[in-house]
From TrEMBL:
PANTHER family: FARNESYL DIPHOSPHATE SYNTHASE. Keywords: Isoprene biosynthesis, Magnesium, Metal-binding, Transferase. This is Geranylgeranyl pyrophosphate synthase. PROSITE patterns: POLYPRENYL_SYNTHASE_1 (PS00723), POLYPRENYL_SYNTHASE_2 (PS00444). It holds the Pfam family polyprenyl_synt. Its cofactor is Mg(2+). One of its GO terms (biological process) is isoprenoid biosynthetic process. One of its GO terms (molecular function) is prenyltransferase activity. InterPro entries: Isoprenoid_synthase_dom_sf, Polyprenyl_synt, Polyprenyl_synt_CS. Belongs to the FPP/GGPP synthase family.
């Protein structure tokens, strides 16, 4: 666990450095509010651990990991505007704190800083660009042509959440100069973790206490959003079982990768198990 905390500290340090360099001061304040408000840092941890698992060093992947976190935060800013959500991670959302216009500019600024970190590697840039295309299609689908069954929901979850998880792991493998089969296997692992994460997120929105979750609940039902419990016949317990199935398949993909760092692989396995058990 101490090693895991060191990796998280490395990510936090680099993230803070990137934010500190943002100009002008107003944008710096807005990006700081969004990015340094106690995020889980799941995606950058996936990037760093994937890199270490296949023989790289954490330092090789930290910029890619921070970039993924910035992209993720940019998407959350937009999500909160769409949902009119006033709370994010237990604090005011960007639009509620600064207004709609500044929040949109904040999202743009986050994406700019992210691609500055990816720009040194064309393969990394391509991976993230592809994931953002999938994310955009997922967001558009959610708003305009909502899924009506489990298969359509799973496609949405893969695009909306799984795609950026996939990019996070693939970036770690790229940072370690891995072969294409390794990049693909780690990508599949992370995509399935992301889908399991989204299913669990939907269940928590339906059943969790807002105070425990750190954000309002019941949004999916109120806004008629395509939550797993809204567009399928699954009960929350059955949806959790579906999430666990995705997590198990993620672990199967992980097992296809030859690991040089067993600890990093162990943490990635634990993550796949944790996403279906988390309470926030």
């Amino acid at each position: 666990m101490e090693l895991l905390e060191r990796r998280r500290a490395l990510i936090e340090k680099r993230l803070t450095e990137v934010v500190d360099e943002v100009e002008p001061e107003t944008l710096n304040e807005e990006i700081r509010h969004v990015t340094l408000s106690d995020g889980k840092r799941v995606r950058p941890m996936v990037t760093v651990l994937a890199c270490e698992m296949v023989g790289g060093e954490a330092e090789d992947a930290v910029d890619f990991g921070v970039g993924v976190e910035l992209v993720h935060n940019a998407s959350l800013v937009v999500d909160d505007i769409i949902d009119r959500s006033e709370l994010r991670r237990g604090t005011a959302s960007a639009w509620d704190e600064f207004g709609y216009g500044p929040a949109i500019i904040t999202s743009d600024g986050l994406l700019g800083e992210a691609f500055d970190l990816f720009s040194a590697d064309p393969q990394a840039t391509q991976v993230v660009a592809e994931s953002m295309v999938e994310l955009g299609v997922g967001e558009a689908t959610e708003l305009s042509s909502q899924p009506t069954n489990e298969d359509e929901y799973m496609t949405l979850a893969r695009r909306k959440t799984g795609s950026l998880f996939r990019a996070a792991a693939e970036l770690g493998a790229i940072a370690a100069d891995s072969d294409p089969l390794t990049v693909e296997a780690l990508g599949e692992y992370a995509e399935r973790v992301g889908v399991a994460f989204q299913i669990r997120d939907d269940v928590l929105d339906a059943v969790a206490d807002p105070e425990d979750l750190g954000k309002p609940t019941g949004h999916d039902a109120a806004l008629e959003r395509p939550s797993v419990v809204q567009v399928t016949d699954l009960t929350p317990a059955e949806a959790n079982d579906r999430a666990r199935s995705e997590a198990n398949r993620a672990i199967d993909a992980l097992e296809r990768v030859e690991a040089t760092d067993g600890d990093a692989k162990g943490y990635l396995r634990e993550l796949a198990e944790f996403v279906v058990e988390r309470e926030r």
